[in-house]
Amino acid sequence: MMRARTHQLGALIFAGLSRKRKGAAMATNLYELIGGRSKVQQTVALFYDRVLVDPRLRPFFENVNMDGLRARQSMFLTMLLGGSRTYGGREIQEAHAGARALGLNDSHFDLLMYHFRVALNESDVGDETIEEILSLLEGTRKDVLGA
């Protein structure tokens, strides 16, 4: 049931973003608008570089294969931004169960969103586009936190 919900979310997001964007004649979705694969990978790397030095978040990533996590996060973000309709990782709730067991809560999610905002900014993504991306990520809060 959850896998179907995640794929439905991806399809809705893709449908909503697969249109010509104002001010970006060649870009048809947020993925293309920000620069595609290389920009997603750069942003994900910058994001985890920040998260891993934040003492409030670092404990959630101990004993985690960070190369694998970066790859899965890049895949998820690509899907979320309209670059691909498929995501082969675990369901969001399942993937974050261990972090929830360690106490992951809204304040941690807010910190993650802050670090993602900074990473997008450091990747030279425009302010309006950052807001659109963060809005999509905000839509995952309930699933990440199991609420």
Write a short abstract of this structure.
By secondary structure, this protein is mainly alpha-helical.
Describe how the helices and strands are arranged.
Blueprint: H1 2-17, H2 30-34, H3 36-51, H4 66-80, H5 92-95, H6 97-101, H7 106-122, H8 127-138, H9 141-145
Helix pairs in contact: 3-4, 3-7, 7-8
Overview of the structural elements:
The model is unreliable at 1-26 (pLDDT under 50). Helix 3 (36-51) crosses helix 4 (66-80) and helix 7 packs antiparallel against helix 8 (127-138). With 147 residues, this protein is mostly helical. It has a single domain (2-145), classed as Orthogonal Bundle (Globin-like), CATH 1.10.490.10. 65% of the residues lie in helices and 0% in strands.
**Shape category:** globular
Average pLDDT level: 84
Rg, Å, rounded: 15 Å
- In whole angstroms, how far apart are the ends? 16 Å
Figure out the total of helices: 9
Unreliable spans are 1-26
Order of SSEs: HHHHHHHHH
Work out the strand percent: under 5%
Keywords:
147 residues, 9 helices, disordered N terminus, mainly alpha, Globin-like
